[in-house]
């Protein structure tokens, strides 16, 4: 019998609103330590809102978000990264006029990390080492995504949140992002990955949670999903 895995992040009964409009309804979600959990669902299902709620960018009116046993709900958004949670939003949101090196430096400052962390991050993304003096706004889409991930990893996070990291990228860059996520899992980082394209991430996912109308309808192991992809058709509408 396999031992239950330790939980890196636990969301229980989460209610979130935009103004007076409720968008998450009693959401429950568990991210185990050292796993990749993918969130799938149609547009507007609540996937991105879930990530923003974890980061304190959308306030919760009820429920609990715990990372390694520490309660995050109620923390100011700028304190959530200090608790070991890193977020790469959709669209990357880099400082376009700053160089690659300066963007990385900003990432290091968030938790007071130094040269050793910088080296580890550049080992993970060797392409960025060649671009350190280049303005980040002049990088290709794939290179910008790598820089956004590198900046987030400067926190040395326990939990990494990625919102559609493969969007608009060429197949070769998608493969590099997948490879990086797999390496991070080996190093003990626990990742939540929001994606629209099932084929882009199934090779690196451990489990998949299907979000629909602000609720986690079902969480399944990837092997089970490969054997029976009907849940993808049911919740995402493709398959």
From TrEMBL:
GO molecular function, one term: branched-chain amino acid transmembrane transporter activity
InterPro entries reported for this sequence: AAA+_ATPase, ABC_transporter-like_ATP-bd, ABC_transporter-like_CS, BCAA_Transport_ATP-bd_LivF, P-loop_NTPase
Tagged with keyword ATP-binding: yes
UniProt domain ABC transporter: residue ranges: 4-238
One Pfam family cited in the UniProt record for this chain: ABC_tran
PROSITE patterns, per database record: ABC_TRANSPORTER_1, ABC_TRANSPORTER_2
Keyword Transmembrane helix appears in the UniProt entry: no
Keywords: Amino-acid transport, ATP-binding, Nucleotide-binding, Transport
UniProt-listed GO biological process terms: L-amino acid transport
PANTHER family per UniProt: HIGH-AFFINITY BRANCHED-CHAIN AMINO ACID TRANSPORT ATP-BINDING PROTEIN LIVF
Family: Belongs to the ABC transporter superfamily.
Protein name in the entry: Amino acid/amide ABC transporter ATP-binding protein 2, HAAT family
Lineage of source species: Bacteria, Pseudomonadati, Pseudomonadota, Alphaproteobacteria, Hyphomicrobiales
